[in-house]
Amino acid sequence: MTAARFAQAWAAHQAGDLTLAQRLYRDVLAAEPAHVDALHLLGVAELQQGRAAAALELIDRALQAAPQPLAALHLNRAAALRELGRASEALDSLDRALALQPDEPKALNNRAAALLDLGRAAEALASVDRSLQRDAHDAAAHNNHGNALLQLGRAADALSAYDRALTLDARPAITHANRGNALLALGRADAAVAAFDAALQREPQQLQALTNRGHALLELARPAPRRQAIGVR
Question: Is 191 exposed, middle or buried (0-12, 13-18, 19+ CB in 10 A)?
Answer without folding.
Answer: middle
